[in-house]
Write a structure and sequence with these properties.
The structure holds two protein chains of two kinds. By secondary structure, chain A is an alpha/beta fold. Chain A has helices at 3-14, 38-47, 107-118, 180-183; strands spanning 22-24, 27-32, 53-61, 69-77, 82-90, 96-98, 121-123, 153-155, 159-161. The chains are: A alpha/beta, B alpha/beta.
Chain lengths: 192, 175
Amino acid sequence: MNATDYANKLREKFGELIAASAEFRGEITLSVADAERIVEVCAFAKKELGFDYLADVSSIDNYGEDPRWTVVYELYGIGNGTYLRLKTSVSEEKSELPTVTTVWRTADWHEREIYDMMGVRFRGHPDLRRIIMWEGYPHFPLRKDFPLGGKPTDLPEIAFTKTAPIEGGPFVTAPGSKDAIEREPRAKTFEG
Amino acid sequence: MQETTEVGYNSKIEGDVIVTQVDAALNWFRKNSIWPMPMGLACCAIELMATGASRFDISRFGMEVMRFSPRQSDCMVVAGTVTYKMALAVKRIYDQMAEPKYVIAMGACASTGGMYRSYSVLQGVDQIIPVDVYVAGCPPRPEALLDALLKLQNQIQREPTFSNLKKLTPLPAKV
């Protein structure tokens, strides 16, 4: 059985819930229409189809579109040697979906990272804290509307941030614009 | 029989006396026993380890005693990217070091933030602690770090140590 067969099995089982599979360079992606039922689909994929390894959970910010968030689950079966990708969408107003830590315990840190960087919450997560930034940091840095240079914050005794000096972005030189030395606020020029 | 001529100081003629300045003597003691504190935060720390290993041999300059306690070290080598999450920890460790203390910012990240023009990276460790020597490179080769340590030695040799000692304010009298 290859990934297409597993995808067909999932669609037989869940019917309308799972949209037609998209194939790109031999990788199969299935869209789950209702984010609330992602746990059922994942549990079936693990217990019945043998996808016992959750390689990654990631998230996409479709800024300006609705639904804004897409959460992507990368599945792999160690027994069957097959990859399968599930994705589901969550609206910005909701920004919440059920956790899959009940299916794969490794989802714990993946979901914490998504919560930290993107601000999507996972209902029922055993320990939903920030994992990279510190507790009390007020922003979600990987959102599209967050500036690359950051925003100034200050949490006394714990951490502070300042805005990084970015003029046009790092390593970006457009024709006719200032050169790297003029754009670099910390660069010193020596005469002679 | 071969005649030998002694060059320099001869204790038989001049006695067991060396004339020098207090500054020169104190600074000479200090500069030849710098105990570094490795603040290894990223890949620069690998080059720092190479500097300490046999091929480059940091002990040629009396600096081989890497101490992982700030209380026992003189020179903090900030080797790597200082994130904002780490920044106050670095400052706290610097504050725990005993005077006199020196800081080497090793590599582009520690000096300026390097390629990380980012929300999460401190744009140069000199924003929180005073830096004596900056080392360019990403990461710098061990020779560059050794050169920085020699530059630090030269700086220590020039310090007005004795006049600084006299500036110390006396402890307040007990009430």
